[in-house]
Every structure is written in structure tokens, then in C-alpha cells.
């Protein structure tokens, strides 16, 4: 079942103000903060959004629906988004547009090699950049008629979504100290921190990732992240 056809059947055609009307976008993202930014971008653009927070839930969704656009994060809790991008690229019929996203710009070439049509670096807050990434890859018959309004508008996700991500990171850190989990924490926390402009937390995540890649002991780096995450969670009480 093609979500886009169902949505377009309701006479929702693209316009200058809502150039993505008629499109359904599946966002595969485990960060609630990043997902909230994408939800606002879809809302401002007129697109319908569906969400999945893991490879498992994304695959389950794709077995039933075929969205017109998929935006997939590279780092997910149950595996790499690169594997899913490869699967979607090989599937027939293929999703019309596959975009990869990550807080690590160094993975751009890997995402394109896996079959992504484009790459967006986090944070993704620019309405114009978001719309252009999709519209530039749509056929002429799905483009809005007439001139399109170009705006420098940006979105600001709800800070509560950031705290939800911090709670998730704390849960992972408390549940296990396995190396695989620490790799996920470094990737997840780093992406959220960069999206939120939290430089100390982003630096701590970078230090943990570097220690893991160099094979050094990581207990102190993991403890620093745990402490910073807890500090941010305690602010919830102060609000």
C-alpha cells in the first residue's frame, strides 16, 4: 500500500506554502529531540509523517506501507541504518526517496554507497534545506505549481524531548556497560548533544567514541557522560 497515493487521493496537492502536501514521510529515528524537529519540518511543509524508532519497527512498517520518502538515522538501537538503506535500495518497488541522517558527517559517503539518495547532517532545523532535499529529487509532476516561497525559517524542538533522550541514555548506561552498548551511547548522546547545541555533552560523547575506537579503557569517559546526563535530568526538577 502506497501511503502517498492514499494521501494524495484526498485532493491534497502541493502548493507554494505547503510544497510537500500529498507526501508521506517515514522518519526512522531513535532520538525524540531529532524526531520532534523533523515532525515540525513536516508539519510546516504539509507532509504526513510516520515514525519508527528502530530497525525492527521500521521493517514492520515497510512490510505494510510504502511511504514516498524515508529519512533514516544511521545509528539505531538495534543495528545500523546503513543495513536498512541497502535493503530499501534493493527492494522493488523502491521507495521514491531515501535520505540518510546522522550527527556524524563522516558517514556521508557510506550512506550514499549504501544507496541513499542524499544525506542530511544533524541538527536538521532549516525549513528550506529540508524541503529542498526532498523537492530536488521529486519528478516534475509532483512539484508544486507556480513559484515556491523560500524562507529562512527554522524549527526549535520542545526541550522536554531532549530530556526524554537523556532519560533514555541514562537507562542504557544503568542497564549495561557492555562495549556494544557504550558504542551506541556515544553515537546517540553525541547526535542529541549536537542537535541541541550542548557542547560539553557532545565533547564527552566524542571522547568516549575515540577511546572505544583506540581500544583504551573507557570507564572514566563513560562516567563523565553518565554524570552530565544526570545533571541535565535534574534540571527537570528545577523547571
From TrEMBL:
* Top-level taxon of origin: Bacteria
The signal peptide annotation in the UniProt record is: none
Cite the Pfam families for this sequence.
Answer: Response_reg (PF00072)
Modification type 4-aspartylphosphate: residues: 73
* UniProt xrefs under InterPro entries: Bact_response_regulator (IPR050595), CheY-like_superfamily (IPR011006), Sig_transdc_resp-reg_receiver (IPR001789)
The entry's keywords: Phosphoprotein
Q: Where is the Response regulatory domain?
A: 24-137
Known CDD domains for this protein? REC (cd00156)
Q: Which PANTHER family does the UniProt entry name for this protein?
A: CHEMOTAXIS TWO-COMPONENT RESPONSE REGULATOR, STRESS RESPONSE REGULATOR PROTEIN 1
Q: Can you say what this protein is called?
A: Response regulator
What organism is listed for this UniProt entry? Pseudophaeobacter arcticus
Amino acid at each position: 500500500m502506497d501511503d502517498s497515493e492514499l494521501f494524495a487521493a484526498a485532493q491534497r496537492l502541493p502548493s507554494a506554502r505547503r510544497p510537500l502536501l500529498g507526501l508521506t514521510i517515514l522518519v526512522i529515528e531513535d532520538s525524540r529531540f531529532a524526531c520532534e524537529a523533523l515532525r515540525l519540518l513536516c508539519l510546516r511543509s504539509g507532509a504526513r509523517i510516520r515514525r519508527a524508532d528502530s530497525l525492527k519497527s521500521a521493517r514492520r512498517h515497510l512490510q505494510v506501507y510504502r511511504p514516498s520518502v524515508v529519512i533514516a538515522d544511521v545509528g539505531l538501537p538495534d543495528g545500523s541504518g546503513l543495513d536498512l538503506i541497502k535493503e530499501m535500495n534493493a527492494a522493488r518497488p523502491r521507495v521514491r526517496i531515501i535520505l540518510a541522517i546522522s550527527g556524524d558527517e563522516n558517514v556521508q559517503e557510506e550512506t550514499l554507497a549504501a544507496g541513499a539518495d542524499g544525506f542530511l547532517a544533524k541538527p536538521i532545523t532549516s525549513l528550506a534545506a529540508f524541503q529542498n532535499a526532498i523537492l530536488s529529487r521529486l519528478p516534475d509532476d509532483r512539484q508544486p505549481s507556480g513559484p515556491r516561497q523560500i524562507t529562512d525559517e527554522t524549527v526549535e524542538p520542545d526541550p522536554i524531548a531532549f530530556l526524554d533522550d537523556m532519560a533514555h541514555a541514562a537507562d542504557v548506561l544503568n542497564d549495561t556497560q557492555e562495549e556494544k552498548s557504550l558504542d551506541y551511547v556515544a553515537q546517540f548522546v553525541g547526535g542529541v548533544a549536537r542537535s541541541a547545541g550542548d557542547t560539553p555533552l557532545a565533547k564527552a560523547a566524542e571522547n568516549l567514541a575515540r577511546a572505544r575506537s583506540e581500544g583504551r579503557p573507557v570507564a572514566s569517559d563513560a562516567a563523565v557522560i553518565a554524570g552530565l546526563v544526570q545533571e541535565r535530568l535534574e534540571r527537570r526538577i528545577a523547571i
